[in-house]
Amino acid sequence: MTTELYSGDCLQALALDHGIVEIRLDRNNEPVNKLDARLLRELDLVLEQLRTHPGLRGVLLGSAKDAFLAGADIAVLWSMLEWPRQQLLEFCGGMQRSLTAIGELPVPVACIINGYALGGGLEVALCADYRVLAADGQVGFPEVGLGILPGAGGTVRTPRLANGTTALEWIAGAHTYKAAAALKAGMVDAVGEPPQLRSLALDWLGRAIAGEHDWKGMREQRTSGFATDEAAFTAAREQARKASRNQPAALAVIDLLQDCSSLSRDAALAREVQAFAGLIQTPAARALVGTFLASQQLKKKNRNQAASSRRVQRVGVLGAGIMGGGIAYASAVKGMPVLLKDVAQKALDLGTGEARKLLGKQVDSGRLQPERAEAILASISPQLDFRSFETVDVVVEAVVEDLRVKQAVFAELEAQVLPGTVLASNTSSLLIRDIAAKVQRPEDVVGMHFFNPVPLMPLVEIVRGEKTREEAVATAVSYAIAMGKTPLVVKDCAGFLINRLLGAYFTAFILLIRDGADFVEIDRVMESWGWPMGPSYLLDVAGLDTLDKALVILGKAYPEVMGTAFETAIQKLAGQKRYGQKTGAGFFRYEADAKGRPRRSGDPQTYELLATVQPQGPRAIGDEEILDRMMLAMILEAGRCLDEQVADSALEIDAGMRLGTGFPVHHGGPLWYADAVGATMLLQRCERYRALGGLYTAGLGLHNLAARNGKFYGSFAP
Ligand code: 3HC
Hints:
Blueprint: E1 3-7, E2 11-15, E3 20-25, H1 37-51, E4 58-63, H2 74-80, H3 85-102, E5 109-113, E6 116-118, H4 120-125, E7 130-134, E8 138-140, H5 154-161, H6 164-173, E9 176-178, H7 179-184, E10 190-192, H8 197-209, H9 215-221, H10 230-243, H11 248-260, H12 265-280, H13 283-307, E11 315-318, H14 322-333, E12 338-341, H15 345-364, H16 370-378, E13 380-383, E14 394-397, H17 403-414, E15 422-425, H18 432-435, E16 445-450, E17 459-464, H19 470-482, E18 486-491, H20 498-514, H21 519-529, H22 535-542, H23 544-557, H24 559-562, H25 569-575, E19 589-592, E20 598-601, H26 604-611, H27 623-643, H28 650-661, H29 670-677, H30 679-688, H31 700-707
Parallel strand pairs: 3-4, 4-5, 5-7, 6-8, 7-10, 11-12, 11-14, 12-13, 14-15, 15-16, 17-18
Antiparallel strand pairs: 1-2, 2-3, 8-9, 16-17, 19-20
Helix pairs in contact: 1-3, 2-13, 3-12, 5-6, 5-12, 6-10, 6-11, 10-11, 11-12, 13-19, 13-28, 14-15, 15-16, 20-27, 21-27, 23-25, 27-29
């Protein structure tokens, strides 16, 4: 028999048979359970009631939704950015007390984790005596990725439950772990198939009630300190310094764990609150929390747009090169069969060979069963003709980057598919309106600009041509989502959004070199600001010949901004066939290391070549000027793109740059960073570099913002 003890907006408590009470998290009218003051208040009420509940022998804690608990409400974290420190300390202290009270009930507690328990969600689960996790579930602490650390006891309970090294790895690493890994790490006690989870948890509880486990002794043990492995701390610190130079959170976690290892649980909890309050108001946390919320808004917008589309069930890909092969693989892996067409058998063999290699890696790492890999491969049909193309919903063209060839391919393709089939071009440098100029149904033509390597890169620019109909855009959006990518709808213009902004950035680089700057210094400044690679290194990796072609196109399209009427550093080096990594030399020189990976080193010859494109000779340019000129050029181009509605909003431009270029996440994106600097200050900097031409001329939007003291993210609210 079940009796309801409590029913609120966030949870219910039900008395089951044999003295067991079940607490079920279930927020009314909300898609997920999240932790906030309201849920904590209700939890306090129920725990208070349970302390005196007659005949209570055990408590089950679980969720009535598809997942246990998604952690603290991130919208509340956003508001915390403005809270006075005292309010922060009181809120977190209260949250810790509520959670600690779970593990201080006079009876054993078992937590059922279905779906996931993340951040504060896992912190709640850690307060139970036992945790059972669904075989398809996931747990972890994403906090460091938000620029903060767990503030509800995670840094205290994890090392005392598992050990210090696991705490370092789990919390500083900010990864999410699958069930097997969580069990191995000792973060959960058992794993079960979802339908059996509840009985599994009841079984643990039953054994604790029967005295088979010393649950009281285990509780006692976890209130003191924990052993530390110095070598693990040194290694973690080293790793955190390298991986997240500009994000204080990972290092703060490591320091906190080390400093608190000898403290009692309660003393450590008090230190955790202080550390949490110290991080939540840093600029990095502001950018990371803000961009998480912005990404959720973009996700919602994309979902809404995709809702009006046809579902993509079968795909055609033209061109079995690196891009075409990658698109075929990424579609097939997500359950969309592919007709992969090329004009040469050799190319088809290469394309399918690439897919086989990628699947083989997944099998070797244990992520994919061999039979599933074979089934995926079998769903890619390599062919030399258009057989069965009338059955596909979308075709992605990925043939050579030549307008005439693409126009001919589209004209031929159009006759092979049913009207309404979306015809997408993966061009990166041509205009969709030009590609669609020779077809009968330009309304079906859209751009889908994938980034290389397709299986790894999360962004796809969806380019709306002049005549593209909305349903074709929506179908491309839906297809990108089905591939697990983030689509970003942009206007048809040279470079679309991402390459246009990169074009401005590389033009700034070219001008700096012309003015005498040392490319190694430019890389150092940009890498220490947070870019994974400085511009010279990036050019070497991408290929100087390819980038030069792209910059020439952009220079013609935007002569005032990106036109260069002189021989550029890139042209100088490319003219010597120094194309970068692929030819063993570009800005740097490359030699294969023992594992065959290219290792970069300096090359005096580069300086000799560059001296010929530096009319005033080399000169030392300060770090501040380098950073200003590089980032200002990108910001101003982003502002112009917003003025021209190349993308709909600042948050979309920033998301594109984070996902498409590795823009340092702790700066949010070019326009988030612009807001942090301020519009008036940006205009003053434009003035400083006015002599350099249109690259440093602000668009109308930035002038308007400065006039009214506004921000690019003016109306942004979670
Ligand atoms: N706070 C507020 N809203 C959240 C949320 C959270 N922590 N997690 C998910 N949501 C909302 C989403 O905004 C979305 O709302 P919408 O339907 O209105 O757009 C809805 O829940 C569903 O989310 P998704 O569309 O993202 O669904 P997915 O199934 O793709 O992903 C998820 C679910 C893996 C939980 C993903 O949303 C996620 O990563 N959420 C954030 C998890 C997180 O970072 N938790 C830690 C927070 S920090 C913390 O706990 C601090 C603590 O130590 C004090």
